[in-house]
Amino acid sequence: MAVIETNTKSSLHLRSNSLPSAPHPLVSQLEDNLQRLKSSEGAPSASSSSVCNKLNGMQDLHDCIDNLLQLPIEQQTLVQECNEKSVGDLLEGSLRILDICSIAKDFLLLSTESIHELQSIIRRRRSNETGFTVEGAKYMALRKSMKKQIRKALVNLKSMKNGLISSSSNNKQNNSSPMLQSLKEAESITLNSLEHLLLFISDPKGQSKNGRWSAISKLMHPKRVVCDSLESDTNEFEKVDAVLQHLISNKLSCTENVQSQLENLEMCIQDLEVGIERMSRKLIRNRVSLLNIFNH
Fold this sequence. Notes:
Elements: H1 2-12, H2 25-39, H3 48-69, H4 72-81, H5 84-124, H6 129-173, H7 178-202, H8 209-220, H9 225-231, H10 236-249, H11 256-294
Helix pairs in contact: 2-3, 2-7, 3-7, 3-11, 5-6, 5-7, 5-11, 6-7, 6-10, 8-10, 10-11
């Protein structure tokens, strides 16, 4: 057992070792996850599949972190090399990320409930435009309020990212442990993914003219919907916003395409909810592991 622990220790601290040795598989896995996720960062994704892929990547990343945190040698190193401020920053950061996850889940839940109300109106009052118009207006009011709240959340998130950049820079200057640096890097990447999720929900383009008329064109020319959908990764939230706004403004009745787009948005939301819920569970598990490490 002593030999295994010694080998593990040497591999985990490869960067500080003068003798070459193979890195621990978990260390390599963590570094691979970090590099892959960093390389996929960039402009906010327009498609739900891209956002879901980011959330899935977060699950793999935090799974790997949890496995590393279970290694006794890594626990010992963190305890020895993390001062009180570093510990506080890690725990505070994990809590704030969980708060953002909770906010995102609330927005998705409210969207689903409003979609269900619209679908119910469509089913019960196919010939009654008034009920659809009223419920559609409620949905658009919810979206307006939601976007306002998301803008505030994004401002707070940006502040967190700036503070993290400063903290990570100090950690590198102080030659912090590789694990601590990786934890801070994972926190930064997770914040970026959550930022993309919130931007996707809020439709940052603000229903640009092109976005509106693209969605409206698909509504008016249903035969082109399949073809157009292959050529464009239009945000599912944007499609519903644009079409509902057009119908309400022009006092038009709903069409089969509206129902189809509502169903697509509902499925999109379900996928996002699954992704954010799974990631939240892994974040909670990692937070518990950190608390156990620093409380013993």
